[in-house]
Please model this.
Amino acid sequence: MSDANTGASTRLQKLFEGHRLTPTQRRIAHCMVRRSADAPFLSSVELAELAGVSQPSVTRFAVALGFDGYPALRRHLREVAPAEPATGARTRNAYQQAVLAEIENLRHLEAFLADPAPVVRAGRMLAASVPLPVLGLRAASAQARGFAYFAAKVHPDVRVLDEGGSMLEDRIDAAVRAGGSTLLCFALPRHPREVVDALGHARRAGLAVVTVADSAFAPIAAHTDLLLPAAVGTGLAFDTPCGPMLLGRVLLEAMCDALPDAQARLEQFDARAAERGLFAD
Model:
């Protein structure tokens, strides 16, 4: 992705931040970020088709951002980020487009990681929290379990919170009583209200919250101390969270760097696995 496209994407992200957007409006926002070079030239009908929403939804989206309508939003984009529309791209089917969208999301993640300070800070927070509760409900439960599976190899006490219900706050309270200082949350659309409530409870209970979310303007942003954004793909019937998964692995790396005995723990695990013949390869 060119520097110009990166700059256009960044300007779009800043335009959307601070606005409480509905899931449909967030879908439009993600589409515009992915197509940042084309966004100033798209009609409302074209944008609606690309985002998979109705044309009136695009109009409501522009109004939610503070514009009189979509033409005013498009004029603003042309004024602040003039560019030529992308041309010459060959036609690709919907499956290929979904893959390309994920590649674009990973490019945005790579650009975000150019400043490693937020991830390094998060890694230190996670390493220092014993126990470490890891929250992920519904669509995000797989991300939470995947992170916890690997984290348990190097961290002394990882607790997965992947089920909602009346006991969720009890388990957060138990982590606080046991000495936990930070909660890691994976938050993906559509964002369950239970996650928002759980993060509010965690902060009131004294936990700092680190969140991997699909965007910096996700609904849980107000309940997070450190938010690390990684967009999801929206080109298929169900979102594709390659970016959040990769960012979770990056966080694991940063946490290992902050744990002085992480390498020794990994070597011990490998030795025990070999003794037990745990793996076929």
Residues 94-112 form the longest helix (19 residues). The radius of gyration is 21 Å. Confidence is low (pLDDT under 50) at residues 82-89.
